[in-house]
Design a protein that fits this description.
Length: 327
């Protein structure tokens, strides 16, 4: 019966987290379900989200009045990152997240879980979280944000920046379809095999933007936040300490890195198809510039706050769903 299956998975999740049970590895899923969208996080900055302290999943707070003087810069950065559209894209990507306690090998097939994801990972909540993280990150810069940041913001709110960002976000939505992702990955692999200059440009862009390391860190943070939520809501028969959770999730780093590197290649190969070689060269230069790195760092902070908040709530929802399945 479904309730029996869920109870067995509650009792055995401690082993699953270590990757020792199940054909698909439910523990691996706990660490990997962020990978479907983490590589593209960073929007205009072409960056990911770095490891930081926001993984506690505490409720988001409004910035104090002392930060209001920095609001104009925050507004400009939010426009450069297109935060509202980014939130819509992330919400679409999160519809495919797997329930770590699902009886299905891929975590799908549970209408209750899908409903919980739609209820928790709303565009509005994600947008508020992204903006809260961005506001705090800009406030931490002090009264004078670095001048290169203004240059990067000007680029990403200009014609080429707008077009490149729109192509990237559209590509992320397309990659929600596993068939599209597989086709894009295959196309990139074929381009690399024939030494296509565009494939080489994509590889250089990934390196210039430092895409993979921050994306891995974001996924690890999300995995930890989800497991903390699962634990705090009584979803683990054998409670794990924060150190235990960190160790279990970190054990998946190599697998995450490979998956996210492939995802970044597919994303940028697809999104850059609408740009000329000269335009991609401009993106490479901007991504590697001091202002580009500053903008990516701000996007990192924004993503970390928004996504770990949602991840912890999803962990709690998974535990509640498991309890409700019990007769």
């Amino acid at each position: 019966m479904p309730g029996d299956t869920r109870r067995r998975r509650l009792a055995g999740l401690r082993n699953d987290v270590a990757g020792n049970r199940g054909p698909a590895g439910h523990g691996r899923r706990a660490a990997l379900w962020a990978a479907a969208f983490a590589a593209g996080l960073g929007g205009a900055g072409l960056g990911g989200a770095g490891l930081g302290g926001a993984a506690s999943g505490q409720p988001l707070a409004s910035p104090p009045a002392s930060q209001q003087a920095l609001a104009p810069m925050a507004d400009r950065v939010a426009a450069a990152l297109d935060l509202d559209r980014l939130a819509l894209v992330i919400a679409a990507e999160m519809t495919g997240l797997a329930d770590p306690l699902s009886s299905a090998a891929d975590g799908t097939g549970d209408a209750q879980w899908a409903q919980a994801v739609r209820r928790i990972a709303t565009p509005d909540r994600l947008a508020r979280g992204l903006r809260a993280g961005l506001d705090q990150a800009i406030a931490d810069m002090g009264a004078r944000p670095p001048a290169p940041l203004a240059e990067a913001v000007a680029f990403w709110t200009g014609d080429l920046g707008r077009r490149a960002l729109s192509l990237q976000l559209s590509a992320r939505v397309a990659l929600v379809d596993p068939g599209v992702e597989a086709a894009a990955s295959a196309a990139f692999a074929e381009a690399m095999a024939r030494a296509d200059p565009r494939a080489a440009q994509v590889t250089r862009l990934i390196a210039a933007a430092d895409l993979v390391d921050p994306a891995v860190a974001l996924s690890l943070n999300m995995g930890m936040a989800m497991l903390r939520g699962l634990r705090d809501a009584g979803g683990l028969a054998v409670p794990l300490s924060d150190d235990d959770i960190a160790a279990e999730v970190a054990a998946q780093e190599a697998q995450l890195r490979a998956q996210l590197a492939g995802w970044a290649e597919a994303l940028l190969y697809l999104s850059c198809a609408g740009l000329t070689d000269a335009e991609v060269e401009v993106l490479i230069a901007i991504a590697a510039s001091p202002g580009g790195r500053e903008l990516s760092a701000l996007a990192d902070r924004a993503a970390l706050v928004a996504l770990t908040d949602v991840a912890r709530s999803l962990g709690r929802a998974s535990a509640r769903g498991a309890r409700q399945d019990q007769p």
